[in-house]
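Protein entry
_____________
===
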Amino acid sequence: MKKYIFTALAFSVLIISCGRFGNKEVDGTKDMRIVCLSKQLTEYVFALGEGHNIVAVDLSSTYPDSAKLLKTVGYHRALSPESIIAMNPDLVIHSNDIGPETVLPQITKAGLNIKAFGGVEKTADSIITTMNAGIAKAADTLKALNIKDSLRIMIIHFGLRNNNYFVMSGRNGVGDKMIRLAGCTPALYNGKGAREMSAEAVALANPDIIIATDFGYDRMGSMDKFISSVPGVSLTNAGKNKRIVRFEEHDLIYFGPRTGDNVIKLINLLHPTASAEKK
C-alpha cells in the first residue's frame, strides 16, 4: 500500500528548497504560498503540519475542516488556470490527474513552480504506522462482526468533467481494496468499452449495495431519485431493496492516515444490522 502514499520526505525537502523564491519570513520560518490541486495531497500536507502554507485548493479538498475555509480554484479535473495564477503561489502541487489538458501548459507558461506527486514507495514512517494501525483496527472490527455472507458492492461516481455517472469499482483499484477490507466483494461490471455507463452491465453486475459518492448522490437529492435516474440501478438488488449508501469520494480513492477510520465507517454502512447488534 505504500505506493499510494505521498512521500513526506520529498515534500519536506521541497519546502526547504523553495526558500530560494524569496518568500517572506514569519517568526523565523518561511511563509510559503502553496496551491494544492489534489485532495489527497491536501490531507497529507495538513498531516505533515504544513497546512498553514496552503492558500488555495481544488473543490474536492474537503478534509480536514480547515481545508474547507480555503479559496478554491475549481474541480481538479476542471480547473481555472486564471484562478491558480491569481493566487501568486510559490508552489503548485498535484498528483498527475488534473484537467482540462490545457491547464498545465498555461500555468507552466505563467512561470509557476509546479511539482507532481503520484504514487511513490517511500514515505514518512509515522504516516505509514498510523495507516497500518488503523487498517489493523478495522480488520478487528470486521472480525468481531462475524460476517457470513459476502455482499456484492458497486461504487458509482458522478464525474464533473464529463457530466455523467460512471462505475468506479471493478478495476482492482483502491475502491475495490476498500470494499474487500470492509468484508465485501466488488460487483463484476463489464461495460464492454461503452463511453457512457451501461445500464445493461449494471443490471448484470447486480450489486447488493451501491456506494454512491457524495457529489453524485447529493446532486440527485434523494435515494429514490438516484435509483430511478442513474442507468440500470433500478434493476439491481441494491435498487429494488433501496440499499444505496452515500460516501465521500476522496475517502474511497487513496490510502492515507485515515484509511482505517474510513474502512470502519464503510463496515458500519455495509453491515448495519451486524454493527447494531454488536453495539
User: Anything to note?
Assistant: The domain at 2-116 is CATH 3.40.50.1980 (Rossmann fold). Residues 37 and 58 are 5 Å apart (CA to CA).
